[in-house]
Amino acid sequence: MRQVSARFPRARPRPRPRAWASPIGGRSNTGSAGSRRARSGSSNRDQGSLAIFDAATGAVLGAVAEVGAGAHDICLSERAGKAFITAETANAVAAVDLETLAVDVIPVGPLPHHCEPSHDGRTIYVSLASHTPAVGAPLLAEIDADDFTVGYIPTSANPAARAHAPRPSPDGDTIYVAHDVGNEVTGVDVESGDIAFNVAPPIPRAEEVIATRFGDWLWVSSRGDGTVKRIDLESGAITGVVAVGVEPESVMLAPSERTLAVSLRGWPATLALVDTARLSLLASVPIAPTAPCGDVTNAPSFGDLAVMSRDGRHVFATFDRGAGCEGGVSVIDVRTRQVVATWPYPGKGRPHGIWYTRRKPRF
Questions:
Q1: Which sequence spans correspond to the domains of the chain?
Q2: Does domain 2-357 sit in CATH 1.20.1630.10?
Q3: Is the pLDDT reported for residue 139 higher than 90?
């Protein structure tokens, strides 16, 4: 690993060019068909490793044994040709070259948790100290995907709040941030750094957010009460609530925006599918097989994070069965609401973050 000497903190985030398009590698991608003719990557927080899967076959195409202690989430900048993995207990973000798998280490702090790229791939936004009220302030780290310089963006006027997961708006002008500690959702203006939007009603353990393409609604997962909530972006009011199950986290909109997929962190590992028009639960899909592990005859499975393919056909969801057992990735067909494949993660530990890309491997 090559250690990067980052310049931080920067007083203000410098303006970024804005893209007027959907993301090119994110959890809410839209685009061409052939969702499983691509690859996906998953991080393992116990191993501190990264595995790259062929999204059509589940074959492991490559692996990086060391991306940092507490490897938690993963996101890609297609423009920079890098995967970024948050190493939560190392206070760093690993940048992995998509061509060579070489690793650079970017110091940030404290406790980097979730990450998301800007639409143009120039910037990586990373939440910090997401579950630790006594550490730091409500901040996002802003990493330049090319030179790895780091700045910081305040995300809440409440000093006790903690940023959990960022997500750019469809036009790229705003970064919406869910705060697990503080129970709120805010929107930060990308150019000014001002907090330009705040949802007044408390949202118990707000985990992830995603805005609709035309900017009318914002969906947020509420881990504290087992629901997803629809927010009117003009008024900030909560206009819909759907009970989905135990500890919802990742939220993904299909291209039609008629279906919202939600990963659940509870037991057993499950993916919820929501009808966004009728505000109703379509299905709860168990995503992990029950199998022996050590002395446990039927090791319980816990859900983690998930990503949707660009065409909205498949969801790739990680699951774990504890640090001493084997976890993996399940592939769910959104239309049939069935698991169509399960890939074991190489080695024991808890797979957690996952990302999807159509970029062909060259390593």
A1: 2-357
A2: no
A3: yes
